[in-house]
Amino acid sequence: MAEYVRNLWYMAAWEEEVVDDARLPRTLLDEPLLIYRKEDGEYAMMANRCPHRLAPLHKGQRSGDTIACPYHGLEFNAAGQCTRNPFSGLIPPHARVKTYPAVGRYGAIWFWPGDADNADDSLIPDFSALDRPNPIVRGRTNFAANYEIISDNLLDLSHVEFIHPESFRTEGKIFGGQYEAEETTDGAIWSRWSMFNTVPPAWLENLPQDVRLDEWIDMRWHAPASMLLHIGFTAAGAPRAAAPVADMVNPHIITPETSSSSHYFFTRDPGEQSEKLANQVFEEEDRPMLEWIQQTMGDKDFWDWKPVILNVDASGIRARRRLMKLRRTEQANSEPLAAE
Amino acid sequence: MAEYVRNLWYMAAWEEEVVDDARLPRTLLDEPLLIYRKEDGEYAMMANRCPHRLAPLHKGQRSGDTIACPYHGLEFNAAGQCTRNPFSGLIPPHARVKTYPAVGRYGAIWFWPGDADNADDSLIPDFSALDRPNPIVRGRTNFAANYEIISDNLLDLSHVEFIHPESFRTEGKIFGGQYEAEETTDGAIWSRWSMFNTVPPAWLENLPQDVRLDEWIDMRWHAPASMLLHIGFTAAGAPRAAAPVADMVNPHIITPETSSSSHYFFTRDPGEQSEKLANQVFEEEDRPMLEWIQQTMGDKDFWDWKPVILNVDASGIRARRRLMKLRRTEQANSEPLAAE
Amino acid sequence: MAEYVRNLWYMAAWEEEVVDDARLPRTLLDEPLLIYRKEDGEYAMMANRCPHRLAPLHKGQRSGDTIACPYHGLEFNAAGQCTRNPFSGLIPPHARVKTYPAVGRYGAIWFWPGDADNADDSLIPDFSALDRPNPIVRGRTNFAANYEIISDNLLDLSHVEFIHPESFRTEGKIFGGQYEAEETTDGAIWSRWSMFNTVPPAWLENLPQDVRLDEWIDMRWHAPASMLLHIGFTAAGAPRAAAPVADMVNPHIITPETSSSSHYFFTRDPGEQSEKLANQVFEEEDRPMLEWIQQTMGDKDFWDWKPVILNVDASGIRARRRLMKLRRTEQANSEPLAAE
Fold it and tell me: B282 and B162 in one domain?
């Protein structure tokens, strides 16, 4: 499988998963990692294995920002440095745990698996739309599928008409829509579907049925696979800027767990009905398709399958090419940047 | 593991598994395949993955002979050609699904994974003995064992005295029998056991016990592992042609699912007792032995184990050598015939 | 993973697992093996696969010291030689099962996977301490961890304070103890912890609390990972030779099943409380740690992790180096000794 791009911000967790003295174990990019919140409110992130005998640090005692290995009691500070050996005053100088830059922003924790010197937090994609007061459920699921298989899915929303006809009730509107791929100067790739002169959708139940709308479903992608869905509408023929309400936005942020499994971070409205819908979409509709594709693809690279490319794949293919280019750039650097 | 011989007819399914608008998914020779019956009564067989993003075609809608991909709605005809892209008039010319010749005969569907130009249906082995009016149950099981391990088993029936003494009650007759391997001009390899001057077996309960018989148990093999068991008897000393009834025949047709698992097609009489016997033979007696052997053999080739060869192995060894020769012939062709 | 040292005695089973006509199947060093007790009271040990078609010999009939293959009835004597072919007088001369020297001693069966000519039973490590009259339960568990990960654990008993504080109630004494690694002329490597001037431990409940003791916990290792734990005490300041009672000794004998799983042979006192303690120590405390480490280590060699070495690792590291040296010596022999 293709290598991961390392000099990027990846979402690691929701901030609410790492509160108080929690020590969250999470595998990201094939690495078992430990995340915890320091006493100053910042996050510490490090390899979840003691450099002595590989024991899992998240099972150890925590005292302040110090974690004690649960196996033989070596203690490490948030910088990964061993600060105490309970059986000797001697601390081997290379008794260090590899740490990673981690930043809390937009309710999420972002980590940088690459060269720490390049970890500029202004490069975190803008998810400020998530900083909103209304109650929201922040969720995570895990698919046994490579993250690029999932971004293929999310960047080609035409699948909604086939996989999710009951869940989203687009009722064929997407077939009459126009698709456009766009790259913007903030590094985003957009997949935009625009539907013109439409009957109001079911969820706008207060609108009279004889009103006509222009609607859009836009997915914004940032490398590696951090996406934000925008759904909006305006009066038919009116400019987008005249929309009566702001776009509804929902994150779809995918982070590789391994080369064949991914964490999928999402939000949904509170309540039983929303929970049921999310379960249906993720468990019954997306999961079987995405995991079948992973199974079928196996270890063979996407491009080696010589896949048919349709016009509606333009955004997904641009995203794949962007990642390929980033990988090549990193590989061209003669010294591996953040390899252990 | 050894490659599959591709220019052969393999049994894919019973015809009764593929009725009406059924879309049967089945993995054969490591390939996920789709089988369905066309409106003209012939069978269509193709790779069970859309050439766009590998989605499973058997889960899509069917209209006439057209299958729509369940993921983004591309439609394919029975020749595997994409005939519709619901989001554009544009159909990429290489949007094709690989298809395979498939023929219904003797109640079974046979497919040809090799060069379609060579798919001469007169090469399907003669199982016309299955075209009989009496009611029969057509079954399939799956063993986690390579198909050649199973044909080794079936071509050396001496194992019946050890694995199936209760099920078949041969009561030691095979020990006193004569074994012969034979190759016939129709491409068959036979394993023949002849027992002379025997007491009538238990299943011939109407015969007086003082009658003496000559009995035979003959297994006929065609590549890759399509076998037909013949059981017959005549009066002791009389020629086979004088047998009072025709041989009882039963198919034992093995088709590789993967290199370490196989479909096993069989028939049995209707009724609870016959079902119970089949369960006992397949589940309790053959399965543990065959799957243990596969586990033990692992990825190491049969010949690399330097297995002891007994005289009763002559048929099984000839079958293995026949397949080796066929593989070598195919590999010697400079251009791969049916490789994707 | 590293190869196994072959010219060593490995514990295969407790003698009480192989009584009467038992045919014990057991995988050791990646080999499925068969162990049985011959009529003369000695043990036979051989590959648990028929050289004809790899069938599992432990499922066959036994008559005296002869085992009949359950598949086609070939019979083998305890030397592995085929002695009967039920379908022919002909016995192929190479119809042999590979056998291994096996010796019963100290209630255990030891086997030698290397060159049989070198299988000197005086090289079996001395476990005569196990030959005692008091009732004992001989147990075996299996960890999904390489045997060297387990000997690392057992040769560095400082972990007791972290993993087993409730089970063994050392109550911090080990922190105040002295650690010493020692190699003795019998080929043993010792890990010795000595605690001076201590309050009597909880299990010496009859001693007045104002007595002061010197205590020791010593682990003796022989290659590959056959260990004997010694626990003892004497009056504070008195020599060890003046101890009022002999050391309590307990075997911790580890034999590789595969490169990532191990048999762990132990003894414990009879009774429910002792059973409960053993379950707690093995299942709840050691197993999760050792199996996590194996999972994390994966196929990467221990040394490639550049593990931190502490002073308390001296015994474990000496044991690892001893095995490396033995492996190198065997590999330097131009002819493989006991490879099949």
Answer: yes
